[in-house]
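Hi Y.,

Following your request, here is the sequence exactly as I used it, all 226 residues.
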Amino acid sequence: MPDWLSPTVRARFVRRYVPSRKVVLDQTERYRAWWDAQNERALTADGPLWIAFGDSIAQGIGASAPDRGYVGQLLARLCAADGRPWRVLNVSYSGARLGDVRRKQLQAARARLPAAEVVTCGVGVNDLIHSGFRHAPGRIRAITRELPSHAVISTVPHGFSLWRTVTYNAIVRREAHRSGLRVADVWAHTRRPYTGKLCADHFHPSDDGHADWCAAFADALGLPPT
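Below is the corresponding structure, written out as tokens. Let me know if you'd prefer a different format.
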């Protein structure tokens, strides 16, 4: 499949004709179960806490293992940066949209937010590719106002509807600035070529694609380069 095709076009083709999509569907349940177990351990362990909000990309879908997604890669970088035993509460789930983060994920983690040294939110791709995009500005504004002031929220990557992506990212930057949040510029880290950066469904990031997401959040958090 030509490298210049966007992830959205590739994914439409794969959903119809390529059986490898079943691999990613299988990952959804397995990775969710893995993170559920990790979250239980994180809540009883000691060490600085990071709370991650998001969708299937925060779950690590597309990566070769759950901890090879950007959340797992960033956790390793946090531990390496200061030697502390960081733990992550990953309340993301596949298919999540902006409204889900506010209504469900933030509500589920609200009591633990004051104890979290790091809070990240990477969501929006599903809002780009489904109906209801007109609601995105208000939903982004609501999320940025409810996140703690030290939180990091991400832009969305290249490869999707250009107008919607540019519009969405402009709103994220504006609302993050108004709320004093930091921005992980995933957009700046995911330019073409996409070769090697997408998994079998030609939509979700591969290990290398997740590394780009990790780099965006690491930059926003001021972590040293690897």
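The chain is about 50% helix and 10% strand.

Thanks again,
Q.
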